[in-house]
Design goal:
- The protein is built from 30 helices and 27 strands.
- By secondary structure, it is α/β, with parallel strands linked by helices.
- The strands form 9 sheets. A 6-stranded mixed β-sheet has the order 5-14-15-3-16-17, sandwiched between helices. It has a 6-stranded mixed β-sheet with strand order 21-24-25-20-26-27. It has a 3-stranded antiparallel β-sheet with strand order 2-1-4, with helices on one face.
Length: 781
Amino acid sequence: MSDAPADTHDVIRVRGARENNLKNVDVDVPKRRLTVFTGVSGSGKSSLVFGTIAAESQRLINDTYPTFVQQFMGQPSRPDVDALENLSATIRVDQERMAPNARSTVGTATDVHAMLRMLFSRLGQPHVGSSQAFSFNVPSLSGAGAVEFAAGSRKGQKERRSFEITGGMCPDCEGLGQVSDIDVAELVDESKSLNEGAIRVPGYTADGWMVRIYAESGFFDGDTPVRDFTAEERRIFLYGEQTKVRIANTNMTYEGLVPKVTKSMLQKDREGLQPHIRAFVDRAVTFVACPACGGTRLNEGARSSRIGGVNIADAAAMQITDLAAWVRSIDDPSVAPLIGGLRDTLDAFVHIGLGYLSLDRASGTLSGGEAQRTKMIRHLGSSLTDITYVFDEPTAGLHPHDVQRMNDTLRQLRDKGNTVLVVEHKPEVIEIADHVVDLGPRAGRAGGAIQYEGDVSGLRASDTLTGRFLDHRARLKPAVRERTGAIPIRGAAQHNLKNVDVDVPLGVLTVVTGVAGSGKSSLIHGNLPEVDDVVVVDQSPIKGSRRSSPATYTGVLDAVRAAFAKANGVKPALFSANSEGACVACKGLGVIVTELGFQSTVETLCELCEGSGFADAVLEYTLDGKNIAEVLAMSVDEASAFLTRGPAVAVLGRLVEVGLGYITLGQSLNTLSGGERQRLKLAISMAKKGAVYVLDEPTTGLHLADVDTLLALLDSLVDAGNTVVVIEHHQAVMAHADWIIDLGPGAGRDGGTVVFEGTPAALVAAASTLTGEHLARYVGA
């Protein structure tokens, strides 16, 4: 059944893989081929590809570094597998959003900005310095330092030498491109004293160190209302410079409240802040483009140097398609190799469907799919060969029009002599595979086994779930629902939207579609959340600690703890691993965390509780024959059959309804994919009736067989009296819609207008847009 090469060195041999739900999986993955891993969500695809093959490759690479380097890198544990042979170096390209960093842009994240800086340092007029003179992350510094003479030349003597660093950072905004105007009234309730809680900043409690450093500084009386401070006391309190003070026999550094809050909260990327802090920042601060640099982040010197009338800030602000054309216009033999490399990289952006971005776009604002494709840019021009590339649904967020170009990119990596492993559900990607590994048959404990290995034609002929659904197509509905009203959007101009006027119908299923970058998210997320009763359910990470789980997030654990307490006549807190029931050794974590100072932490399974997180005495209490650890180890499906009464029943039922029956109650939230996180949020929100639900690509991570289940779920929401608005590319969802709003015609500057409004049947009949053409082909019209 396998088409793997006969030479055992031409395959990655996996024997006895048991990571997560894998059941002693044996598989041979052909090297220097394109292999697609399929199966329902939770079937074990990621456990095999990422958790086993990629993880062991990384561990072995770490072993080759000197011990002192390993101390900084950390050492991952060996995957649960008997044998792995013929591994090559592995590069993971996943959908994790780029770390929020106020200084990171698309240009800096891909090194394109570095090439652009080098170009301006060579050709820019007037010449202002080396490439760092065009970097908004490098300040201009000058001063003097002591340099010790080398041995043998006036040994022991020192010489004073001056130095000068010419960077491109705007001194006013420190390279951030924006400055903040802080509403002091949101920071301080001046009717109160410091000891009474005058400071309104999150985390500044009246008895905490953050407040004590002000109240006990000696600069003013902590019991005096702030409004009664003298002018000088007010200045020191709000804007005082850093000064050493002694609080409770401890030396500490005093700093005015405004600069302290600015450094701790405002100079961090907004998207990376915790929700309550982000809400505070939104209330207290108004961000405006820096008046000194016009939001470019660069100082006057960097902005003054131009190539053909264009400075580096102009170039970074261009849509990448325009930037690529501008680079092609530069004809100077002295920089021909640099121009060639820059041109190829920018062309890769366009080819991969990201030509609508600009280099100055903050990397933290990219979606998961955009982030994954941006990471791919680094590797397309790489000179490395015989590498194993691992991708997690690389077509996520892509319109059908762009999927073919992604396929070309995957083939390009393979044809350079690399092994390409892709976790994917879309038939268009499965079709180009040299080899397919199908896992299942279902999810969670019902998955974890190989169902099929071989070529695509064999998969199509197989009786596996993937094989049966590979050619399945949703049909246009014979009749659509009638709207009950509409939400008017007028003059929408966020990002690339061109004063869009559109009515979003109420009481029906509306799909908003268009190529990536056409303005879908700007239109919906930028306008609908302002309307009452709008429930936004997206794929953003769920905030919480390492102790957070589906049980804690949904509130099911509260009901379970109450049931255990009632059945055993004890307190509910006893059944919390975060409270009285915690194992004394691991404090409820289930693992022992060893802090190694400046080195990485090491986690080992707690031997006392064997990973349950609970004290032995707690595990003696049972509910219908099961202890608390056994209940938390249940899947949602199992828990639904076990917990048949009480408030948990409804929540578990909704989790099953959204297709999450396979996840376990106690698993960590950070193990969930973006699609699973969205469905978890949806399950919590579904109790609300008469609402407007906004879902952002809910098919992400869904197997072909699960899409029909999702469509039934969307129907049930509408039939219950809700309005559902879905931002989506999947043709099955489009075909099932009552109404379609199609944006385009292209991306970025070429998008931002509504190119079609109407029923799916009308869109297919007109076939006047890219979406219409692809939907017509999908339904066979």
